[in-house]
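thought: fold this chain, then report.
action: predict
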Amino acid sequence: MNHGTAEQLALAQDDARLIPFDTLFSVNSDGDWKHLAGQTVTRRRNGGTCEKDAVSMILTDAATHKTIVASASDLAALGALEQQALDLQL
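observation:
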């Protein structure tokens, strides 16, 4: 797996289907999935949603292969600066 980049997410802003497979991203704290902020996801290959607005992403650390439907604005590149400000409650 490769680490996703901000450039890849910028290219997918208008079409989520451009989010690459076999690439790791982080759920950002500004999108629809705030409660999962900081979790690592990758694009789902088998089944799920594949629309212009959003695609299915699998949380890589979830024991049950939890899937979310996300757009590029819901994601961040791994190690992005905005991750430092995540308000995670353990």
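thought: worth noting. The longest strand covers residues 23-27.
final: tokens above.
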